[in-house]
């Protein structure tokens, strides 16, 4: 038997960055300390009560009474897949708004799940008006509508007013991507008639990446329970996952215990701050940041009327070396900002103001550092 030699690696020593990119955002010491607490089993009574807390705090953050509200054990994309694969059956028609990377991803996921996908498209940075959505909805007559609330690739905030009523008027279902929007701007799941919503732990919830909170309305849960075909994904089949998160506590997969500790601490911080105060903090500091960025001559990709406060996408000025500026911000100032994605690659910087990274000091430091790097 010849045994491969163990590699020699350095001890783990990540630097303390200021995470002002598109996520992950900074997490508090309280969240990090929670994740380092002693491990218990995923069926330990102590952990079961943490699960209950996480569900009730998620209901608050989503502003919903939905029974089916849980953190999926994986990142935001798995939240997207969970919403799609549990609701879509072969041949179901879904209309998806595509105005950036994540609408496109939703369309891809839905197509893989066997849906008949139709899209409405808008230039990146723009959003859909209610009239445009209504027109596409009435033309295509789908069963589902999928919209990205906060499009992280462009920094645009999709208004959702009136959309739930439109869709419900025809017995349809509204699926919303709230990965970046949740806990940074209002996401009123019950009031807005959202039937399935997914998010990610690493944005405005300020927890490390690894959990995807989702919530299904009773109507959406009924679709799931009356399915004729099995859910395409075993791992994400919520009818089985709910055997664990619901009353029965039956083993489905081993829950990521320490991630749920982290989420508990992160959600508790949100509950203590209060959603309204948190939304206001994001809005106020976005205004300060926007004034400073505009003062530096940077232009936003999204119109002022529908900007996502927590994701500021600005055009990289002509002649400026994208990679060099971001490298200097990281090396000299320990600040991470994001580059562009997809069509915006090399053209845009994405400056996050998410959760714990959304503070006065961070805004002032970034503006000073960026001015220095742009010289
Ligand atoms: N949807 C949006 C709007 C996102 O911003 C992201 C990630 O940035 C995702 C979905 C996918 O989430 P994840 O990268 O956690 O899988």
UniProtKB/TrEMBL annotation:
PROSITE patterns: AA_TRANSFER_CLASS_5 (PS00595). Pfam families: Aminotran_5. Its cofactor is pyridoxal 5'-phosphate. GO terms for biological process: glycine biosynthetic process, by transamination of glyoxylate. Keywords: Aminotransferase, Pyridoxal phosphate, Pyruvate, Transferase. Residues 1-27 are annotated as: Disordered. GO terms for molecular function: alanine-glyoxylate transaminase activity; L-serine-pyruvate transaminase activity. The keyword Transferase applies. Residues 1-11 have a biased composition (Polar residues). Substrate binds at residue 350. Residues 40-340 form the Aminotransferase class V domain. The modification N6-(pyridoxal phosphate)lysine is found at residue 203. Belongs to the class-V pyridoxal-phosphate-dependent aminotransferase family. This is Alanine-glyoxylate transaminase / serine-glyoxylate transaminase / serine-pyruvate transaminase. It comes from Pseudobacteriovorax antillogorgiicola. The lineage of its organism: Bacteria, Pseudomonadati, Bdellovibrionota, Oligoflexia, Oligoflexales.
